[in-house]
Each structure stands twice: as C-alpha cells, then as structure tokens.
Amino acid sequence: MPSCPQRRVSRSRTLARWCAAALLASLPAWQAQAADPERPWLDTSRSFEERAAALVSQMTLEEKAAQMQNDSPAIERLGLPAYDWWNEALHGVARAGAATVFPQAIGMAATFDVPLMDEVSKTISDEARAKHHEFLRKGEHGRYQGLTFWSPNINIFRDPRWGRGQETYGEDPHLTARLGVSFVKGLQGDDPKYRKLDATAKHYAVHSGPEADRHTFDAHPSKRDLYDTYLPAFEALVKDADVAAVMGAYNRVYGESASASTFLTGKILRGAWGYQGYVLSDCWAVVDIWENHKIVATPEEAAALAVKNGTELDCGETYAPSIPVAVRKGLLGEAEVDAALTKLMTARMRLGMFDPPEQVRWAQIPYSVNQAPAHDALARKVAQESIVLLKNDGVLPLSKEIKRLAVIGPTADDTMSLLGNYYGTPADPVTVLRGLREALPDTEVVYARGADLVEGRDDPAATPLVEPQYLRPQAGSGERGLRGEYFRNKELSGEPVLVRVDAQIGFRWDRGSPTDNLLARGEAGPDNAVPNDGFSIRWIGQLLPPASGRYRLEAGANDGFRLYLDGKLLLDRWENAERLRADSVELELEGGRAYDLRLEYYENDRDASVRLAWDLPGAKPTFDEALDLARSADAVVFVGGLTGDVEGEEMTVNFPGFSGGDRTDIRLPDTQRKLLEALHATGKPVVLVLTTGSALGVDWAKQHLPAILVAWYPGQRGGNAVADVLFGDVSPAGRLPVTFYKAEETLPAFDDYAMAGRTYRYFEGEPLYPFGHGLSYTRFEHAGLKLDRDVVAADGQVRATLTVRNSGERAGDEVVQAYLRPLAPVPGRALKELRAFERIHLAPGESRELSFVFTPERDLRRYDEAAQAYVVDPGGYAVDVGASSADIRASASFEVRAP
C-alpha cells in the first residue's frame, strides 16, 4: 500500500485520489464534506433524494448489492462508513446493552393509553439516539448500534397459542392501529427535516404462527379477512404515521413470498396506499424464497424476484453475491438496483448520517438520558397501568399491616418474567418478590419457588443464588461478595480492564452486552470497556458456609464456566452453549470455616449469563417447603404463568404444552396447577399473579381463588408495580387486549387464518374473560349516552357523548370503550368492533363528559369480495359504550342512509 505525502509533491493522479479517499474514509461523513466539497451527496443544500442518487451513481454493481444487505460494509473510496440496519426497540432499546425496559408490547396494549404510549416511544427514541452517537464516538458501527429500528410488531394476535403474540398490541385492529401510530410517531420524531429514528411496521401482513412452519407456510385468508383484519393496522401506520419502513414476513401469502409479493407490496402497499418508504425482508426470508418455498430455483432468481417486487433491503446474505449475478443473467436491470438503493440511501440521509451533527437536532441528545431516573419512573407507571385485575372477591387490596406474607411460584423471583423477548439490559430489575419486600419493610415476607415453570424443564435459574453474607473477596475482609476481574478476551489473559467486588454472581446480559452497564456505573472508560462478545471474568474470594452439612453447589452460564473450591476443580463446562445451562456438585462443608473459591467464565457471542447458586443443608423439597410457608402465613401471593424462555420466536427446545415457541395447551402448566390447588387447600387466601405474554385458561383459579391479576411481562419495575396494585397504592385499570378463552374451548386449527370463531369480533361462545375486561378498586357509572343525529350519510359523521362518573370512594382510572355493531347481523361481518376508547382519571365523585366521533366510511366499512372494494352497508347500527366488550353500560342507535 503506498504512503501519502506529508507536503505537496508531484504524484500520480491515481495516488492522489487514493490518498484523498483514505483521508475521507477515516473521517465522519460530515467532516468529509468539508474535505471534499465536490462530492454532491454531502451537499446539504440538495434534497436527500438528489444526494442519495449522486452517491449511488459512484458505486460499482457489487458495491450497490452489498449496500442492500442489513450489514452494509464501508466503501472507503467514497467515505461511506459501515452501517448495520438491524436494531430492535419493541419495548425499549433492545440488544444494545443497558436501556430502560418497559412492559412487553402486549402489556403496553393493556394500558389502553395512547398519550402514555406517546411518552414511552419518545423515551425509547431518546435513548436510541443517545446510544447511537455514543457508539459513533467509540468508532463502533455494528449491529444494534444504528438508527433504523425494526419495531413495532403490528400483526394481529388472532390465536392465543402464538408464541410471538406477546410482541403485538393484541387481537383488535383498531387498538393495534392507534397504539402503533403513536409508537411510530414517537420513534420518528417531529422534526420537519430529519427523522429521529426509522420505525418499521412488521411483519407485513398475514403472519401469526405457527412458528415451526413459518418458513414453509402459505396463508390463504379470505379477502374479507385480509382487508378487515390483517391489513388495517398496516394501512394506518402508512397513512397516519408515515412509517419509514415495512418488513415482510417469512411465509407465503396466496402463493407469493410475503417478502417478495406483487400483490401485498405492489398492488396494496405501493399502489392503493401510495407508500413511499422502503421495504425489507424478514431475516433470511429471501433465502426461503428459493430454499424452502421453492418459488424459484436459485439465489439469484430469489434476489431478482424480491427486488423487482419491491423489497429494497435484504436482512440476510443473499443480495450481495446474487444481485450482480442476476443482473449479468438479465434477470434484473441495474436501473432497478439503482432505484432500490437510492431509496435506502435517502433514508440514511434523512436520518442525518451524512450531515454535520450541529445541524441535526436529534444528535444533541446527551448519553446521560440513557436509563435516566425519569425513564425508570415511567417504566413503573406503564407497568402500573398495564396490570389487569381479572377477579377480586374483596381480598384486594391487601393490608400493609399483614404480619407474614408467603410469596410462592416459579416466576416470583425470575428476572426473565419481567422481560419477555426483544429486550435490553435493565440497570436494576425488580422482581415481584423484591417489589413486595420493598413495599413491606416491617412484614416478614417468606419465599419458595414451589414448582418448576413447566414439566421437564431443566431450569438453571431455579436454585437460589449464594447470598452476599456468605462471600468475601479475601481473608479478613469486611466486604461481602467476590472480587471480579473482567477481561477483554475469552482466555482470562493479560491485565483485567476492570476489577470490582460483586455482591452476588447472578448476571444476565441480553446479546452479551455488559459494556454499557459498566460504563453507566462509571467503572470502565470507553477505551477499556468490556466488549459485547468475547470477554471473560474471574471471580475469587472465600465461601463462608453458615452451618455444617451437605451442600449442593451450582454454577451456570452461557457460555463456558469452571468452579474451584480450595484449589480443586469441581465443575468444568468450558465450552459454548446455546442457552443458560448449569452443573452442580454435592459436598460436605463445615460451618465457620472459610473455603477459597474461584469461578471462571467466558462469553463467546449473543446472550451472556452466569450465576453461582447453592442449596443449603436440610433444604426441603420445594413443593413441601412452599406448603409449609403458606400454612404459616397470613396470605399467599402465587406468582406464576409463563416466561420468554418457553413462549417466543421459533424455539428449538420443546416442553409439554409447548412446541417451537408456540403453545399446544392454553392452560397454566401442570406443575403450577398442582401447586396452586395444594396452596388453596391450606385454607389461606391465595392471590394469583400471572406473568405471561398471552391468554391463559385459568378456569380453576377463577372458580376457587379470591383474586387474579395479570402482570404480563411488566418490565424493569414490574415488581414494584405489582406491589403498588396489591397493596392499593394504585387502583388497577388495565384492560385485556386479547380474549381469555376457557381452558377446554375448542379453538379453530392454529394454521387456519380464517377469522371465524376467533377474537371477540368473531367468537360466538362465552369467554373466560372478555376482550377489554379489567376491574378496579372503585366504581364507575356511564350515563346519558346521546347521538347528535339519528341518520347519517356514509361520508358523514355522528358524534356520541356521555358522562362518566366515579361513584366509588377512591380515585382511579376508567377505560371507556365504544363499540359499533350492525343491528341486523351481516354474514361474515364482525359481531362488534372497538372503534374508540379513552382512559381517564377521576377522583371520587368526579364526573367527565366524553365524546367520540364516528365516520361510517372509516368505522363501518367492510370489504366486499364481489365488488373488490370497501363498502358501507346502509341500515341500523348500535353504539355500545362500556367497560369491556361484554360489559356494555349504555347503547344508542343510528341509521346509515343509502347513497
């Protein structure tokens, strides 16, 4: 490689160009602008589209193809830095280290609170922007470090068995649309020139399981179901929120790949809706086109098909090698490649990536906003609002004067029960057990896990961690915990970049990213931070057993770990692991003696976790221990349900009642049902708190237990929020965004995408708990419902007004829900549909007048398959207003006049 001159000398034009390119590539794009004003793509006086086209025109075909994959490489001669489009922000910035973790999307939907969602999405985008610029300052351009976020998931949660339903806003198109629009607007910001972030509507458009079949399945819903159920939320995000990106799905729809569809993308998205943003595939969905769906025979044919049908960005590895081949074979024109890439580069321009940061409003957000105290408080507020009180026979709220409370259940002290999936690393997650203890400092709160989450699950998180009082970093030390030495390699070699005392060894870093966590504590500077992957830690100190006897000492990690006691190697699992796994050893230890202890750990890539745990001598079987604690307590709080470890995205590990991340049984797992029944038999009042991302058939609990709460996956302050509700500091007002079916309900076949018999809109049976259901600690009256007209044209509007009064003795929130239904049922049409809602806060005795405006063309349209268009049927319609889809407090009717 030639060297560049330090001063002006006669050099060849080629070398001069190389030197200029080398200089530019070492600078941010906005600095390169000053270095070379002749580069038109850096001229901020031009439009983003002009600048993008100018940049694309300078690329070779191979360079263009590489830029159309999510991990776009740098082009040094053009001063273009590397960029990875892949980022996640489902309920907080995910997989990028420390970030505020809000309740999972299904929990946020349960708030029925659009203004609150406005706050959440603005907060997430603040943290995302701040983290991006911090990564840039460190010269990092990797995955989960950019500004293009693949959220929200607005698929309709049509079936409770779908493992990814937790990522959605529930089963209703209107609720999904209103929350989705709010989320997108908050992510993308309100600047007239620069987008704050790019949001992505996914997975377009008929996609909701089964997970195991998603790479081969072909969905054929009726056109009525397509237009009335599966498309409306996507249409709203395109038309009402100007969403930057749309992600296709893995499966086929009507025989076409959803990530390369002339119908979905060409006719509807680009055609009928006039969408101008960019489209990307789900990850490796382009591979599915030829390898699994077998629509075409080769990768180059798949790439050509996807680009021609409107998919500009490939999350995967197909476009870079295959697009040049497709062009040379005549399958794809280079002009089509240019048009697609220009759209992508325009998006990056609009995010301000190529402009001086002082010109970009969003670049001024300081890194200190990340996990700010106000964000932590907001996470608690959202969790409070998300909690749904399904049943209360008067046992709630519990008295804070209670003397002894037993907290039992497999998710009571499990951090994963707070997180769901697609999450970041919370600084200080509060489990339900911890939240209850913090709420009751003068009460004896005893705990037992009691049962495993599901039958046959080897749960390395079940054994209690070794507590700080039984650890010290060295002989004679008054500190408690172990000395941790953190290394920037997997071999524990060289000097540690960080040394500190860790009180307990129980860490879980999503996607293996402790870096921000350490930076946030001010313990490691940017040059010495532990990397996201490929690091190791050695903990040394002494173990102090409290009594003599037989102990079971356990270590667990993802990936490798080794445990030594008094210099003897006890456990050795020094290899990569796909998930957290544990090993243990039983041994006799003497009370009052100090044992030298060393735990070594390394992280290879992706998820990172490590823990040191034990069972003390004489520990009873967990089931019996739980019953003993219940008998000795004044009340029992059972915390159970599901976690993201058993329901989620395309899992390879299956358990009874679960398959590939989906469920085959909507009941509470057997292990938990048996324990619940035994706890109830003690005669003590048992309050059931469910952690879950989906509906559960808890028929037995509804019949026998005095109170049931749904906490969802409540985020980093979920434990505090549950305590706030249980002890009456907050009156619950969350509402079910999905129907809870009875355990023995015969549901339609999971792989049948017909809506008949599904969700409150089409289900004609009696649900266990209906859509929109949720109780309060106070009472509300709905009265005086009036319409401003009795007859309205299809293109007119009708206004409904009513008064809502808090007739109870304490302040609380009410979620007022307005449903429309035809007075004469129409075959194939929804029985009723949520078309307006508002969450309001009222003091005791306070009243408020609410009004909702309905437009028949928007709120009463249905798709007519014969006409191949939306129509509004003339005739009578009812406005039903109440506290749920089944709890209607007031009704009024009007007539839509035929044109």
From TrEMBL:
Name all PA14 domain ranges.
Answer: 477-628
Gene Ontology molecular function: alpha-L-arabinofuranosidase activity; beta-glucosidase activity; xylan 1,4-beta-xylosidase activity
- GO BP: any one term: xylan catabolic process
Do you know which InterPro entries this protein is assigned to?
Answer: BXL, Fn3-like, GH, Glyco_hydro_3_C, Glyco_hydro_3_C_sf, Glyco_hydro_3_N, Glyco_hydro_3_N_sf, Ig-like_fold
Output the Gene3D superfamilies linked to this UniProt entry: Glycoside hydrolase family 3 C-terminal domain, Glycoside hydrolase, family 3, N-terminal domain, Immunoglobulins
Q: Which keywords belong to this entry?
A: Hydrolase, Signal
Q: Which SMART domains match?
A: Fn3_like, PA14
Please give the superkingdom of this protein's source.
Answer: Bacteria
Give a single Pfam family match.
Fn3-like
Leader sequence range is 1-34
Cited PROSITE patterns: PA14 (PS51820)
**Homology family:** Belongs to the glycosyl hydrolase 3 family.
Please state what the protein is called: Beta-D-glucoside glucohydrolase
Organism annotation: Luteimonas marina
